[in-house]
Amino acid sequence: MMGKGLVQALHGGLRLEVCILGGGVLAACSLGPAYRQPVNPAPTVWVTPVARAGPGESASAKPVANWPRAAWWRGFGSAQLDTYIADAQANNNDISVAIAQVREADAEARIAGAPLLPSLALQASANRQKSFSPFSGSSGTLHDEYTPTLTASYELDFWGENRATRAAALAAARASRYARDTVALTVVSSVALTYFETLELHDRLQVARNNLSNAQHVLDGLQFEARVGTATALDVAQQAATVGVLNAAIPPLRQQLRVASDALAILIGRAPESVTVAGGSLADIAEPVVYPGLPSALLVRRPDVAQAEEQLRAANANIAVARAAIFPSVTLTADGGFASGVVATVLSPASRVYGLTAALAQDVFEGGKLLGAYEYNKARYGELLADYRKTVLTAFSNVEDALVSLRQTAEQQRREQVAVDTARRAFAFAQLQMRAGVANVLTVLNTETALFTAQDTLVQIKYAHLQALVDLYQALGGGWSRSAPGAFPAPGKRS
């Protein structure tokens, strides 16, 4: 009942205020520069010709544009990798931080939009006073007053300051979403690279064990020959030294494997001791096909570029905020309610009171603070404009670097495979010739070392090639676009 009566009491005053507001809104203007998207000249073609993803495919075939899809990692054909990435999307702490920052930015946007609406405040007070007269001889007179009031206030956004503040906050909220997508893409890429690193180390360990076993087999043969007098003690000592070197190469690889597994555990949000990559090989990983389209289409596929532009848009709106703050502010206030000394009649029409106030405020002297804020925001815009342009150039550079790395590692892998095949044949021939007595043990040692080195190098090149492929996926935005955001966890998957 009291709320309804207060609204009726304020009806006349608020109606007048709404009329004034309508005129104010119609006359409102913005003092800031209109935002214009920076011009981004893009290369017409990529400098590095696009190579086939698979090292066995023809490099002469003309590729057709095939941008990454959102779940691009599934193209590697690894169920274990899919599981790790799903865990990272649900549990990675960097993604959790980025999601929380999105909620923070949304809340700040709501706060920034609040001044665009009138504020209402309800207040009720009861006051009792007792007065005494020294001449009346009475015990005093009681005075009661009951006053429920409702106050509405609104700041006319004549210069567009509040609207610009809200626009800046909304742009910052959008930037936080793009930052979240950038973090998610980085995390997914890091999971893939770290998992491939563990497979690389597994393969290198297997190469080291195989070569150690083979070297031990040769040593056993030389020891037998030394006992029957067909080999010298020097031959045995040289091969024993080779066995020792190969044996010593295994512990560092085990250490690197444990470190890589721990890094993978952190990425998927689990304790390091709970994650152990049990086996697997780079040979089991498929190489999906990805070809970038025209460079001009890249910028709408990169969340970091979108983030940099929204930060620039927010800075542009903040210039309007700072400039509008220099001009006077106009605030309208309407208050109304009832005032009565008797509770029974406090809501009667005769007890109704209301008032209207218009206030204008203008700083007379503020020591250059407002002008300094205006100059600061202009400089901040210039800083973010340069940062945006750098982000754009970096995006093109990332793709070029990934393309040249993909192409060269594919070629290097082909050549190293030839080297491994040649070294394997040379080692086999050297063993046969040594048994036939036409080659000494030094020849066997040299071919053995060459084979081990070539095999170990080939594994590392395979990893470098997969790394280049992941880098290319990341450089191309990982299937992200403004209309179809990239891979990040759905809210329902988070605790």
Give me the CATH architecture of the domain at 61-116 and 170-329 and 373-493, please. Up-down Bundle
Q: What's the CATH first level of the domain at 61-116 and 170-329 and 373-493? A: Mainly Alpha
Structural class: alpha+beta
How much of the polypeptide forms β-strand, as a percent range? 5-15%
Oligomer: single chain
Please bin the fraction of helical residues.
Answer: 55-70%
Mean pLDDT: 83
Distance between the termini: 44 Å
SSE ordering: HHHEEHHHHEEHH
Question: What would you say this structure looks like, in words?
Answer:
- The protein is of the alpha+beta class and 495 residues long.
- The chain has a domain at 61-116 and 170-329 and 373-493: Outer membrane efflux proteins (OEP) (Up-down Bundle), CATH 1.20.1600.10.
- It has helices at 2-27, 79-91, 93-113, 161-228, 233-248, 250-267, 303-324, 369-436, 441-475; strands at residues 119-131, 141-156, 329-338, 352-361.
- It has a 4-stranded antiparallel sheet with strand order 1-2-3-4, with helices on one face.
- Helix 2 packs antiparallel against helix 4 (161-228) and helix 4 (161-228) packs antiparallel against helix 5 (233-248).
- The relative contact order is 0.17.
